[in-house]
Structures are given as structure tokens and as C-alpha cells.
Amino acid sequence: MNWTEPGKYLEPLAEQFRMNADQKEAVFMKKYMRGQYDYYGIKTPLRRELLRTFLSEYGLPPADHTEALVRHCWKLNERDYQYVAMEILGRLIKRIAPGFTELFDYMILTKSWWDTVDYIAGHLVGIHFKRYPEMIEPWIPRWMDSDNIWLQRTCMLFQLHYKQQTDTALMAKCIRRLYGSGEFFINKAIGWALREYSKTDAQWVLQFVKKEPLAPLSRREALKWLENRSKRQ
Questions:
Q1: 228 or 104: whose pLDDT is higher?
Q2: Which of 2, 22, 32, 88 would bridge with 41, disulfide CB 3.0–4.6 Å?
Q3: Long-range residue pairs from 201-207, CB within 8 A, at least 24 positions apart, any chain
Q4: End-to-end alpha-carbon separation of the chain, Å?
Q5: DSSP letter at 111?
Q6: Confidence class of residue 120 from pLDDT cuts 50, 70 and 90?
Q7: Residue 3 CB: number of other CB atoms within 10 A?
Q8: Mean pLDDT, to the nearest integer, of 31-52?
Q9: Taking the model in full, what pTM does it have?
Q10: Closest CA to 84 of 159, 9, 29
Q11: How far, in Å, are 21, 72, 125 from residue 78 at the CA level?
């Protein structure tokens, strides 16, 4: 396999995408994403099945060739390829070097929208920073100070699955840095991060929500799981 030519590596998968394309569904998907991206119209379960079949035959690229593959996929028009790149990278996430943080920065900033950013934050950056915690200090302040909503959303969501390993001081610092934001995706992310952590430490979240001047959206999202649990009991 010539790993220096990611287009050739992906061609069998691209052929399957073309064969399974659904124009009607593609129009719906593009509309759902506010017309920003083109799609083959392949629903997620089938797309993932096609990828699994492809990988079982052609294998994963070596970790040191993954960046070229990701950048290639990010340049293609169909959004399906960005999903493929993320899912391949997800399978390799425990093999990559600390320097891949630069690639995540590129992925977050290029063709930015919640569908890619949320996966990158929770499933890629989160695992990467857990493996290389020394990367948190240079990158999180840089992303927070960027004033880019997608980098800042990543700062809020990368600890989403950390549970007891959540750095609550860092989470609180990031939240406070974002107070006053009128951006939906920021306030939603703050609430989401707090809601997820409430499943681990409800008392911490309740106290934080009580004393902090959260946006109404953040507050509602933060307490949603706890309120639903209370109703069930």
C-alpha cells in the first residue's frame, strides 16, 4: 500500500459511497447542516458499516501517515469523508504522538461545525490529552484566548468522559472565562459539560450552578439530568 497517496487508499471506499448514494437523503442532510456541506446521503449506520468492511480488507494506515489522510479527507467536498477521517483517527488515537495536537487544531478550525467539533473534542482531544496531560497547559489557554467559538467549545467538552478524573478547577476556569458570551454553542457546551459531570459529582455541580452567574441556557442544561433523575425517583 502506498500510504503517501491517501486518495488511492480511499478509492474503494469512495466507490462504495457512490454506489450507495441517496440524493434525496443528501439534500435533507445538507439542509440540516444549513447548506454548508455536500453529502452522499448515506445514513450513519450504513456509512460505518461500509467503513468497517473497507478497513477489514485494506487495513488502517500507519499512525505516521494518518495526518496526510486526515488532511486529504478534510479537503474533499462531501462531509462523509470528514466523518471517515475522524473515525479512522479514533481507531488510532492511542498510537499517535503528542505533536498531533497541531492536527486537531487544524481539524477544529477548518470546515467547523458542531458535528465534527464535538467528536474531535470528546473522542480525540479528550483521549489525547489524557495520554499526554502535559499538552493541556500550552493548548487550553491558547484555545481559550483565541476567541474562536469552536476552539473554546473544545475546551469545554474535551473532559466530557473523564468522570472522576475531571479537572474541576480547569473546567470552572474555562466556564468563568466565557461568562457573558451570547453564543449558543458556547452556552450549550457549558451546560453540557456540567450536566455530564453531575452524573459523577452532583453536589459539586449544584453548588457551582447556585453560586455562579451562568447564562439561562447553561443553567438549564447543567441541571437537566439531575432534575430528570429527581422526577424518576
A1: 104
A2: 22
A3: 201/168, 202/226, 204/168
A4: 57
A5: S
A6: very high
A7: 14
A8: 97
A9: 0.94
A10: 9
A11: 11, 12, 23
CA separation for the pair 232, 151 (Å, rounded):
36
Which letter, b or e, does each residue of 189-222 get, where b requires 16 or more Cβ atoms within 10 Å of its Cβ? bbbbbbbbbbeeeeebbeebbeebebbeebbebb
Output phi, psi for 130, to 5 deg: -70, -35
Cβ–Cβ under 8 Å, residues 222 and 191: yes
CA 68 to chain centre: 19
Tell me which H or E stretch contains 80.
helix 79-92
Identify the H or E element spanning 231.
helix 216-232
- From 92, 73, 68, select the one nearest 11 (Cα to Cα): 73
Of the candidates 40, 38, 39, the residue with the CA atom closest to the CA atom of residue 19: 40
Q: Which residues contact 233 (CB under 8 A, 6 or more apart)?
A: none
Q: Which grid cell sits at 107? A: 481539524
